[in-house]
Predict the 3D structure of the following.
Amino acid sequence: AEEVTYNWEVNYMSGAPDCMEKEDIIGINGQFPGPTINARAGDNVVVYLTNKLHDDGVVIHWHGIRQLKTPWADGTAAISQCPIKIGETFKYNFTVEKAGTYFYHGHLGMQRSAGLYGMLIVDVEEGKKEPFHYDGEFSLLLSDWWHTSIKDQEHDLNAVPMNWIGEAQSLLLNGKGQYNCTLAVPANSKGANGLPGCKFTGNEQCAPNILDVEPGKTYRLRVASTTALAALNVAIESHNMMMVEADGNYLQPFWVKDFDIYSGESYSVIFRTHTRSSNNYWISVGIRGRDPTKTARGLAMLHYKSTKVSKRPMHHPPTTHRWNDYAYSKSFSNKIFALTGSPTPPVNYDHRIFLLNTQNYFEGQTKWAINNVSLMLTDTPYLGSIRYGLTGSFDQNSPPLTYPDTYDITKPPPNPNCTVSSAVYTLEFGKTYDVILQNADMLKAGDGEIHPWHLHGHDFWVLGYGEGKFSKKDEKNLNLENPPLRNTAVVFPGGWTALRFMTDNPGVWAFHCHIEPHLHMGMGVIFAEGVHLVRKIPDEALSCGDTGKMLMSQNHN
Ligand code: C2O
Ligand code: CU
């Protein structure tokens, strides 16, 4: 194992990722998206992160990396560390223990939406092999893009009544999209949506991604989604794909024509190029789960080296399946199983927590609540306040482990109001926990949304998805044989999702909806496990709030 070191400065920059100039993009070393981290399983990754923003703190979360023994390096503001102060440098130092496709992103306010993200790719150890073969690989980091700044978005979301941010202006693939033109038609015509064909001289920031392939070869495409809002679907024209990896875990391979990907998820697919081709082909990314009419699909091109790169693909890009066909989404989710030989879950659980997802109000603000509690972080990072017993730093009540039996998930909440709290779920260390996510109607009757839930510090087994309210009869249908291990799982409108994990990683871990505005509106919980076992937490992670005061007084003594 080696040590790979990066020196990064986080700064505001301007740019035109979707051909429209924008200020206040958060980049790294003047780059958007941030640089890709490349490492091998077992390596130590060191990132010296300097905050060059002039008006805000910053942190970076390494999404999918479990941070075994380094919970303070998880990069969650107010949870694992203090925001890095303006002008200061923080040293992240952690082991990437498992090969796979990951990404990183800001985890303070809505900084992720401002562009603070990049890929994190972990290869197998030197001399080891993946359980599938490929000749070359590509990666695509997917995101959605608004022309309004996150400051305005945060302000609008907090307003009474709330001013919803609306749908994204563009979809970006590796930070490139097209807002005022479409690649789907030639330069001098008009697309079905009225957009003119794009004209590029070649040097535009928003010129499409081109993936150069040779005929008759096998490629691995790594795809991760860091969208603020959108659920996406990915297709490659005229090429089937074999799903082989999800969130850094191997899958029992299966073939698809297209696949859904939710925010917080990553996949690897394998595709074979045609043995002979004088064409190029579209890679198409469209929206599912939300009405896509306001956001044009994202496109990239698969370029066969056997033909000219300037040659337009012969056919129209693949159309994305109808956005509200949830049966289609569910059938995909239900095809995902762990590769034979993967770790299986304990057959029994020690504790089970039910988490009801509802939309509510608090003092007129629109919130998302879990068992009627909406999460509000405090100034002191929990990891420090719990480790050092600073009980005044956050709400000491235990949040509810379930919701009332009589709750009707097919109706809006009978009491539209929720409470707001910084309380923590204290999990017993070394146990098996089940979490049953239960979706319910929003404030408006008949409305429901997909929520992709992401757990820090762990992978969990996805034991199953179901319709309606989880009940005894669903128990026997849980998959204990070959459930996939993941760090993100979706709960569909009007349904439930069952997860199982082990509390084997001392630390304080967020578990939240990966939709950025939903998290901002309180859609998350905090799990604390075995915090007394946490060794040294660097002072720099604690230099704010009550832990900051604690350090000061120690230094004076
Ligand atoms: Cu990728 Cu807590 O997030
Ligand atoms: Cu959500």
Observations:
- Residues 451, 513, 515, 518, 523 surround copper (II) ion (ligand 2) (CB under 6 Å).
- Residues 345 and 438 are 21 Å apart (CA to CA).
